[in-house]
Amino acid sequence: MTKTSRRTDKEEHILDCALNVFAAHGFRGATLDQIADEAGLSKPNLLYYFKGKEDIHRRLLSRLLDNWLAPLHQLDAEGDPLTEIRGYIERKLEMARDYPRESRLFANEMLRGAPHIQQDLHALKMLVEEKAKTLRGWMDEGRMARVDPKHLIFSIWATTQHYADFDVQVRTVLGDDGRGDGRFHDAARFLDHLFIKGVSPKT
Amino acid sequence: MTKTSRRTDKEEHILDCALNVFAAHGFRGATLDQIADEAGLSKPNLLYYFKGKEDIHRRLLSRLLDNWLAPLHQLDAEGDPLTEIRGYIERKLEMARDYPRESRLFANEMLRGAPHIQQDLHALKMLVEEKAKTLRGWMDEGRMARVDPKHLIFSIWATTQHYADFDVQVRTVLGDDGRGDGRFHDAARFLDHLFIKGVSPKT
DNA sequence: GGGCAGTTTGACCATATAGTCAAAGCGTCG
DNA sequence: CGACGCTTTGACTATATGGTCAAACTGCCC
Lengths: 203, 203
Hints:
The first copy, chain A, contains ten helices and no strands. With 203 residues, chain A is mostly helical. Chain A is globular, with a radius of gyration of 20 Å. The first copy, chain A, starts with a helix and ends in a 6-residue tail after the last helix.
């Protein structure tokens, strides 16, 4: 194990622990002591690896956006519209299930008005622009209903991330009878139905 | 103007200013100095009206939940299912538009795991339970599609509150060409279509 | 062993922030 | 006016927190 790899491993470990803290308490609510504690080292030692609190936070956010947008990238203009949309919803829901900390970190940043990643939001805008065009193409071909494509994307983001960001509320309402990840299965079924057919009765 | 009414007015004004601060920075990120400043009084004066930071925050949250659930209360078992659901979505979207601060305050609290209103969440659970029963009744009568009623409610919450909580993101993606509240009109149209018919092509 | 680069830490500092307190100001009623 | 109660404030305290620094430790190579 080389020195650089050991250092990288340790930085990775610190970032992982910092993510726990930032996701649970927000940027302002998180403290260096908490992060150092979680990572099992002293505060000066933590600051040996990172310049400061902002630095750690920025590092987490910058890597986040790419992963966050990956599922949308996969939306394929060559595929079948409904299949593609279903797939996108499924992937986003899986991310909410498997990476709730990242979802909360992102939600926190948005709630505050994106003070640390305002410029990175441009990439997000461009990607949405591109996929909106794809969706509009499908609509023009009559392969899906004509709806506002950007609001469609918003609603997919909102419904899926809700299960990570509002986890307490969801668990409380569902009763959280130790059913584990069952709620994600139910959510997947529901969202599939909602986005494809809506709630109108069968005719 | 009586003494008590003057005091109440002032308390109301303070709470309003505090809401600005808490919604923008979260509980931990808000400071008493900021709130006092916003309200135009000194910190000791602020603390003459409220016991402390927690006190102000609790007062805001406790009144919030009632207002927040009012639109769901209005969902009427005697009404027409699709009309009732449409109405509920519309009311929730109006709340996101007219009371974004309240939405963000609530989102903040949920993100943190509802540390200050865990017990009040019981009322929310009960109400959802009741309305889920209403929805299930409609499904049994074949007046709407059979879907998981609680997840339906979640998706309405998620999609509407998204416009308040993720406002920066929404504005960035839409281009925010000073179009004012146009996005809410578009969102209303889209959500109506989504929840009623989904995105399947017309057959 | 000795030296060196990389790592770790206790002690410390400056600032921010929740909250206190005694004293002063102010309005109203006699 | 003058006294009384409500309101306001400057000055202060205690604690938390981001960050620094010099010294000590560790493992590795000669």
